[in-house]
Structure of 4-diphosphocytidyl-2-C-methyl-D-erythritol kinase:
Amino acid sequence: MDRLKLLSPAKINIGLRILRKRSDGYHDIETIFHEVKLFDEIEFEISDSVEFETDSDEIPKDAENLCLKALRIFYESFGIHSGVKIFLRKRIPIGAGLGGGSSNSATVLKGLNILFNVGADESLLCELGSLIGSDVPFFIIGGTAYATGRGEVIEPFKVELPFKIVIVYPNIKISTAWAYTNVKLKNHRHKQSLKEVFLENLNHPEKFREMIENDFEDVVFEHYPKVGEVKKKLYELGSDFALMSGSGSSVFAFFKKIDDEKEQEIYDAFRDCKVFVLR
């Protein structure tokens, strides 16, 4: 095989608790990652040299590029010297809390594994992914997972969400590093795990509002009030549950039902945002 195309999915965080700051400067967290049907596309082609192209002018082409970082780690790990051309078609907003960069780097690892027929298993790819970013291992596995540690300790579980998902991106880029620097830690001792809360109340999402939170919301809503307004409006539109994803700025909402009229109402309410109705 000398050519390949893969989809690179976004994720939402169904709850995000920041438990403590660690001695290595990172934070221990607790979250539920859920892969959603919003995708970038990545094409691979064996070539004479290493090339990276994208249709987005927001993607860096230097050492900060997570796709190229994944490629370097993969090549060094398996002693590969062949050229490859990578083309990234971007649809997941950047700085949105949807994991687009991590997903892209995970997809590069998976794509190179197939393209060069290396035969690396999932656990080895997760190990390589954790060198790139905390949530990259999740995108190697996909689906839904309970995550702890820095977000790299993944416990996949199967669930069918009985909702339609709406994601609203208010065209605000938020730095994860800034969010972690400014967040105020809360006390989560003696609380049920997010996974237990989520599974026990799946058919009563109104209870999510009381029990599932994102610790980044306070600081983000304070500095970027528009993000808080998006969440408020999603409730006004009748969503069963709405929450900011990751460190923001996207807000997702669960709706039990969305017909054509409701879909149009959602688009009309957020004319100055990017809206994704994922049926």
In short: The mean pLDDT is 95. The beta strands are 3-21, 27-47, 51-54, 83-89, 144-148, 153-156, 164-169, 241-244, 251-255, 274-278.
